[in-house]
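Title: Prediction job returns without error message
Component: structure pipeline
Severity: low
Priority: P3
Assignee: unassigned

Description:
Job completed but the reporter wants confirmation the result is attached to the right record. Sequence as submitted:
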Amino acid sequence: MGTIRVGSTDMPSVGLGLWKIDSTEVPDLIADAIEIGYRHLDSAADYGNEEAVGEGIAAALNDGLCRREELWVTSKLWNTYHRPEHVRGTCEKILADLRLDYLDLFLIHFPISLKYVDFATRYPPEWIHDPDAADPAMLIDPVPLMDTWQAMEALLDAGLVREIGVCNYNAALLNDLQAYARHKPAMLQIESHPHLTQERLLRLAASYDMAVTAFSPLGSLSYVSLGMAAEADSLLDADVVRTAAERTGKSAAQVILRWGVQRGHGIIPKTSHRDRLKENLALFDFELTGEEMTAIAQLNKNRRYNDPGDFCEAAFNTFYPIYD
């Protein structure tokens, strides 16, 4: 399996994304993935399944499928916990749910700060502050991102996390973060796929020695069921993808995922099917040509499927764009 450098260590370049996977399926899925060869798990408090992830990790370790130090486990600080006084307690809650002593990587999930919701009130709290309100909506709590980052740095100092980083930041926020960070961010996690190549943002991250992980590396597939994409948005039927699949004897999905890792960053495809787990990991016995890499990149439409400027207003009655 390929790796990328993240801070002072290596991260497997293909991970298992755990968004939208039902808790009842997660423990067996984790065991299957680790048995197949996955050593990178991408989780988050907001996914609502971290206790089940912890159960799966514990079972895999107890069964001797791998050692803890061989695993790379990422989690994320949710929007309601941005105030510095809530950051450590949230990290400790995540560690307890995952049954771990430390995280390999802890990320700020969105550059969006929402009013705090106590664990006992609702966990995960998701986006709406009070679902029972007459007009339920997000409730913004304007916490400076610098304050949140400094609390993340304290987790690093305390040994609760090995690396820290950010998700869903734009170029201006990355530039600003570099100006005040005592511990520089090791990772930028963003949506990226052939419909959203993000070349300038990738170049900026590289200039700051930040690794990049792409979520939704297959594009629209995770969003059709949410009404955020259409079946016609699929990349799997693109001519250049099909042609490369025929040449290499691989599936269209493998070609797209190979394009992602061949760009030099991590990817976290999600699946709950064992055969797809194997397929998504089998990316290192072939290469795309330079012409194929360029042709696939030219599918770019700057099409963002996971955009708070769209879904926050549509689903949570609050207009809150973070991208221009």
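Comment from assignee: result matches the submitted record. The beta strands are 3-6, 9-12, 16-17, 40-42, 72-77, 105-108, 164-167, 187-191, 211-215, 266-267.
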